[in-house]
Amino acid sequence: MEDNMAKVAVLGYGTVGSGVVEVLDTNAAEVSKSAGEALEVKYILDLRDFPGDKHEAQVVHDIDVILNDPEVEVICETMGGIEPALTFEKRALEAGKSVCTSNKELVAAHGPELVELAEKNNVSYLFEASVGGGIPLLRSLNDSLKHEKVDSITGILNGTTNYILTKMDKEGAAFETVLKKAQEKGYAERNPEADVEGYDACRKIAILASLMSGKHVHYEDIYTEGITKINIHDFEYARALNMSIKLLAMCKKNENGFFTMVAPFLVPYENPLASVNGVFNAISIHGNMLGDVMFYGKGAGKNATASAVVADVIDIVKHKGKHIEINMKAEKAVLSPKDNAVRNFFVRVSDDLEEQAREVFGNGVEVVKRNSIHGEFAFVTEPISEKDFEEKLWKMDSVKGYIRLY
Amino acid sequence: MEDNMAKVAVLGYGTVGSGVVEVLDTNAAEVSKSAGEALEVKYILDLRDFPGDKHEAQVVHDIDVILNDPEVEVICETMGGIEPALTFEKRALEAGKSVCTSNKELVAAHGPELVELAEKNNVSYLFEASVGGGIPLLRSLNDSLKHEKVDSITGILNGTTNYILTKMDKEGAAFETVLKKAQEKGYAERNPEADVEGYDACRKIAILASLMSGKHVHYEDIYTEGITKINIHDFEYARALNMSIKLLAMCKKNENGFFTMVAPFLVPYENPLASVNGVFNAISIHGNMLGDVMFYGKGAGKNATASAVVADVIDIVKHKGKHIEINMKAEKAVLSPKDNAVRNFFVRVSDDLEEQAREVFGNGVEVVKRNSIHGEFAFVTEPISEKDFEEKLWKMDSVKGYIRLY
Q1: How far is CA B45 from CA B62, B66, B168, in A?
Q2: Which residues form the Aspartate/homoserine dehydrogenase NAD-binding domain (chains A, B) (predicted)?
């Protein structure tokens, strides 16, 4: 007797994997209504055993048990990291099983080839949870907004750095102090490099840029700056300018080509990205007909991320026997150099160098003053290309730092 | 010879209708990629002729030409109003043609019965553009978030009133002054009642509440308050409380039942809805696993709204021969009375009635002071039910006004 349940396997019973199982359990009725049939977790792959766990009996240690079971239709890869996740995903797709994943590192590095492999095997490869946690972003891009000419995507894609920047701003605390507190609270990893150096946001914008361009944007090609150089005085100047400081990840298509970068930016208060605070993520998309839409939500967290994985599982079950098209070919995308991008820059120098600033950057520089900060001079340049800015900055004595304006 | 183009008819060649045709023209390549086949506007129904218009030859004056043409698969109703739109939509569905519309008035009043009629005829009835303009909200609710137990939807659903409130707040100008300017700029109708009295937001939350409950929430049952009583002093108090004043439309499911209302609310700055300014709309959805997600964008405008209609057309073409399920039955939803909802209220009275306020509302009332405002007294109550608040307010002398806290 055949039952009418779609069989799912979860690879990795950690935070996200156990969240996926929990969503499938807790919302079983809603899930089956949405998918058109009930879903059953048949296997959970993990190196560990989970004695006493409700799903103890589903835990296996051998991927082949899963791959050789013809009943399994969907595989959720929630292990993270490149290997063995990549090998498992490839073998699953080759075995005619659809795969969905929250693994941004893997999707950024190999997503396009896995989409092509899925197409070849007439199954699907989905990764909603890899960007923006539970925010239904990728499905909207691939579905409701697919008929738009999207020319820019800008996002706050890393909750840890946004939390740190928000705390520094609101409490006037130094980067190291806030980072330490965030680590104590579990908002930041013990090794915070991936977050604070912008590497995590870089992986995520690489995925969005690949979807936007239809080609593979290699994350190694993306200019990436983290938030470690931002100091508390920067926030005081930002307030004087009616701006927030945010780590933005962006990709843009214009007459200069296709360009993507990750860096801290001064964002005017009137831009809704400026008021995205704490661990929240937000992604703003501009389409030629639609104008701007923004999606906002928690970019991480067990249940939110798991809910996005489950949305993919449901989509796969609804499209049984069909490949869900994703606009992402393995061909390498060519990015424009950042040199041509034109913007204003905020600059701080050690001495009162107003005269020098005007000599180097022209009379249009706008002086920014804070009575509370002494022994330095700050200004905003007129719009200038990245390349020209870099060249001119060399001519200034004693530069303390600079931040781009959005 | 049969061509491979899905044939579309547009009813009403006004702002949204001509926008739909423009989106289909301008983004033809993207549209056909998304739909899987090209789309052709075969007919445009309007009372007027459009000599010189690119689509002059498609204009017809008789609905029967469209309904009797078996080639037409999709009908976009962009006429607005109840009749003759309702009759045309019904006849189209009965003729086996799918319908999509931006007509919020009609969807609020008859949407659920039209969804049922579509199901009976194995076609689809979609209305993404009826709420939130171009924001891909309904499709996300019906798709990516369908496996969530959604227990609350709160939105700023009317751009005109949000523009007026924003201007009053930022410029300290009176309601009438700002309204007049908004009318001059075309942001408000000459007869502004539908917007400023909250009727438009009420229609939209009725649609969202129907989707959330799966039944027909009648808009006449929704408690609705507009913004005409908000005055400039309210914004000064709001600032003292670190809050904005927003016209919120909301529906909530909790132990008291299912409840929906439209009214101005004081919204704390830390809530992202507080910083939604100008003509923008935003809708926050809370799911049991997902937590909060918010969608933000222009809630009106020709091309944004048209883009949402086109997204529906594409969805229909992709699901040819299938009814797209919408969670909305014609059965009437039972709403809880607002009496039981518990919240804080902000109250202004004519004289210095602190003692009376404490007698009536208890010692927990919080006094709100503005040095710039004289001859009155303002306070915030402790959490209290709507019913108790109403009863107690009668005991206060000379009440000038009150606003709910979100």
Answers
A1: 7, 8, 41
A2: 12-128
- The 10 Å CB-count burial string (b at 16+, else e) for B8-42 is bbbbbbebbbbbbbbbbeebeebbbbbbebbbebb
Nearest-Cα distance to chain B for A347, in Å, is 28
User: Domain of A281?
Assistant: 146-298
Q: Which of A4-18, A74-88, A107-121, B365-379 has the lowest mean pLDDT?
A: B365-379
Tell me what pLDDT residue B3 has: 61
Q: Do A270 and B277 touch (CB under 8 A)?
A: yes
Q: Is A16 annotated as a binding residue?
A: yes
On whether both B229 and B88 belong to a single domain, the answer is: no
Ordered alpha helix ranges (H), B265-352: 302-318
Instruction: Write out the two tokens for B26.
Output: 């301008």
Residue B1 has a pLDDT of 40
Does residue A90 sit in helix, strand or coil?
A: helix
Q: Which residues of A touch B312 (CB under 8 A)?
A: none
Q: Contacts of residue A34 in chain B, CB cutoff 8 Å?
A: 146-147
Amino acid (1-letter code) at residue B105: E
C-alpha dihedral sign at A357, A362, A365, A369: positive
Asked if A296 and B291 come within 8 Å (Cβ–Cβ), the reply is: no
Could you give the count of Cα atoms lying within 13 Å of A10 in the half-sphere of its Cβ?
Answer: 29
The ipTM of this complex is 0.93
Flag whether B264 is in a domain: yes
A128 and A169 share a domain?
no
